[in-house]
Structure formats: structure tokens, C-alpha cells
Here is the input.
Amino acid sequence: MNTLKQILNQQVGAALSEVSGLADCDPNVITASKPEFGDYQSNGVMSIAKKAGSNPRQLANDVVEKMTADANPLIERFEVAGPGFINIHLSDSALMQRAAEIRSDLQKLIPQTAQAEKIVVDYSSPNLAKEMHVGHLRGTIIGDCLARVLERQGHEIIRQNHVGDWGTQFGMLISYMRELSASQGDLPTQLADLESFYRAAKKRFDADSDFADTARASVVKLQGGDADHLVVWQQFIDESLKHCQAIYDKLNVTLSRKDLKAESFYNKDLKGVVEKLEQASLLSISNGARCVFLPEFTGKDGNPLPVIIQKTDGGYLYATTDLAAIQYRSIELKAERSLYVVDARQSLHFQQVFAVAREAGFSSANISLEHIAYGTMMGKDGRPFKTRSGDTIKLVDLLDEAIRRARELVAQKNPGLDETAYTEIAEKVGIAAVKYADLSKNRTSDYVFDWSTMLSFEGNTAPYLMYAYARIRSILRKRDSGLEDVQITSVSETAERNLLLKIMQLSEVVDMVARDCYPNLLCNYLYELAGLFMRFYESCPILKADAQLRDSRLALCALTASALKQGLDLLGIETLEKM
Here is the structure.
């Protein structure tokens, strides 16, 4: 089932090609910017007229004449505006027929893609030496939203959690853990708080030169494959992953242990990365380190910028591991897209790594390597969000605080609920509020974290959308049964028609999110959809209308609820039947 926009692009494009004599014409059909311009507009006539050497307004009239003669049942009428824009008004009966088809199979609200791809989504990627902090929130939930959207369209999604579980800091942690295990006889109890454990190990490392020497030796043994050190390392990693999974479960994020592709996974391939770069004559020695210099990357001083592959001491860097990961995803997994949901500060790193990968043949010509960059969560002081003392905030503490605040809010709004209801609603609303506040912002921008805004029941917030859904479900519960076979039979009121058309456009917004990777487009759509429902509810009596009109409007309510629920699910937000 194609989207309305896809159908119109095909139909107007075919007519434009026929009357212009040019093949593969792009009619550039978009959603109309204002109601007076119809439901959709074709803005591609002017560019085609220029190629064909014809008058654009006349060409637009020829297209309209051709399509009118074909008596397309989807279209009520056309208008030619300005120098050659074509305004398209859709048929009410066609919209209702499409709604009936979707009502019989709600999966058609978001149709399957005609060209399914294998897509890697690399996201979250915490450092397992410490607990997840607020800086991990954006990458985790943006990546999860994109994975959900693409999977819903029918693409084969390979989630990859490229966690940091290798490197010099783990020598320090393993040494400290071995000391504590020797005295406690089991996993150190201090591991319950990884952040404190890390700080204690670092303090010991800085204060005790003998311990520091032991830690450095532990790194060498670990990287050399020493069995005893690998056992302790694995225990630490397992404990760290439990912390991560608890956060993912709390956030309703779809990552699990099976999605893990840690830095250590690629360790065996790093020597081969260096050899491949040498064979391609791309490696140079700079201050004792092995580097790649590409002419398109220079600093402000005009000097070439290096991609450091191997340090003087033989150690490898992030770039080395990322090249191995690209080779794995491109050559072994044979992915067609690989999305890297990583903050914007790493933009240059990925530009360089992607360029080296193409130059050296780590990536095939069939894969699209895409850095999905995002900005920083800021406090009201305009600086990265931290505690008053300047410490980084644990992500679990932020989420617990969101749930606590949501509980207070729910208690104020509805003091008669029982304890179980308070707990369920507070958990869902609190988590949803934090996620939606982030996802509703353009991901490339920094944004200010504000409790009062995100937990408001007014404006573009999760509580507002969750309340809109719960309100619709409340209306539907007043009709005991039999709604499954009821169809929308009237959209004579403007508010009815506007709401139905908006529902039909969910799949178009999902297409845009899948292509351009901006979840805020879906948030904006859902907010507009909820607003249109509220206007419909206020201007069109539902339960008090005569039987046939009542049932038609209840069917429209049910379809709205389905669109809201499916859209929120793509954001990773759970709905509530009652609030």
C-alpha cells in the first residue's frame, strides 16, 4: 500500500512526462502548506518546463487537462496557481475508502517498504568502565527510535551496541577488582555502584605507584590474552552490562545482550587493518605513530590532519577499531546502510574514518555510511547538564527523578488512584516525558533540559499526547462493542476531514524519518494530530450524534487512537488506557 504522496508523485509524474515528452519527470509533490492550496501541491512543473523549453503555466494546465480526462478517483479537482504550481484536492470518498482498507488491517497505517534493505544501527555505545550518564541518553533513544522506524517499514535491522570494553583503564579496574576479590572471596560488593568503584580504583592508581605498575602490567596481560586476567575482565564486563540492561529496560529501549558488538570483538582484526592500509600505501609515520593523511582534511593552519591508526607504543585507537567495524558491517554482514548515532563532536572523526574506509576498500560501493549526529543536553545555565557540584549525572538517577516528579503530578491531577495505578502511570509518564522532550527537538541542536516543560500536560509534550490517547480510549469504551466493523461514512465537517487526512499522512512522515533520521518530524506530526483531534472533539458531537454519524465519528476516533499509539510506539513511548 503506497502512501498518498507516493501515488500522487507516480500519477502526476506520468502525466508530466507524457505532456512534456521528457522521461522520468519529478513532479515534486508535497503536502500543501495552507488549506487554500489544496491537500497536496505539485511544485516540479517549472523545472520540467525549463528543460522542455515550454511555458510552465501552460505545461501545468496540460497536466491538469490530461489527469482530468483520465478521471482519477483519488482526486476531486486541480487548480493551477502562480507560474505553474498544481494544487491537488483529494476526493472525500477516496479518503474514506482508504480508511476502510486500513481499518481492516491497522498495519497498513505504516505500509511495508517495496525495497527492504539490511541496515546496521550503531547506537548507545557506553563505556563499560563506568555507569551510563546523561550524555548517553540522546544517542540511546534517537538510535532506538530509528531502529524501530526502519524495522517497522520492513527493513532488516541489525542493532549494534559498540560498547567500550577494552583499553588501558581496564587494566586499572581489573587490578583493583582482583585485590578486592582476594579479600572478599567473590565479586566485590562495591561493583553495585560502578561510578564509585571507578573513582576508588583511579584514586588508588594515582596514589600508589606500585599499584599503577601492576595496573599497566595488567593491560599488557589482558591484551595478550592471559586467561586469569580475561576471567576477571569478563566478570567486570558482565556486571557492567547488567547496569546497562537495567537502564535499557527502564527506558523501554530494544537493545539487548545479543546486540553487543564491543570494541574487544574487533581486537583480533586490528593487525589486519594496519596491514591493509600498508598494502594500499596509505600509512605514514608521524612522530613515531602510524597515520593516514588524506588531502581533503587539513587544519586551520593548512597542515594535513592525521587519522592515527597505531600509537608509538603499538596501541590502537578508535579509528582502527571503527575501520574494522566498517569492514565487518560492509563485507561480512553485507549491509546497505550503516547508521552511526554518535554526538556531533565526533563529526570530523567519522568524516575521516569513512573517507579512509572508502580509499582503502574497507567498505564496498554498496553501503551508505551515515553519521547521525546529535547535540548536547544543556542545563539552564547553558552548559552541559550536570549536578550543582559539577559532577556528571547518572542516567538512572535522572530517570528515577523523572518518575518521582511524574508521581507527584499524577497525584495532584487524580488523587483517587490506587497504589498500583500510581506506580504504572508515574513510570510510563516520567520516562516518556524525558524521552519525548529529547526526541521532539531537532537532533543536531543542543537543547535545555527543563522539568517543568517536559512534564506539562499542555504543549508538545509526552503527557499531552498520552492524555489525548487516553481520552480517545475513554470515548471508545462508552460504546460497548461492535466498533470493529464500523466504518467512516462521513467527513462533511472540516474538522472531520482534516483529521482523517492527517491520519493518512502518518506513513509519509515515517518515510521522512526513515530517510533523513530526524525523529522530531514524527513528534511534530503526532502533536498536530492530537491537536486536530481536540478540534474535532470540540466541534463535532460524537456520542450525542444520530446513530450512523455517531458510529462514523467513533470509527474516526478509533483510527486516530491507532495512529497515535503506533506513532508513540515508534518513539519507544508506551501508551496508557487511563490517566
User: Anything to note?
Assistant: Residues 118-163+265-377 form a domain with the Rossmann fold fold (CATH 3.40.50.620).
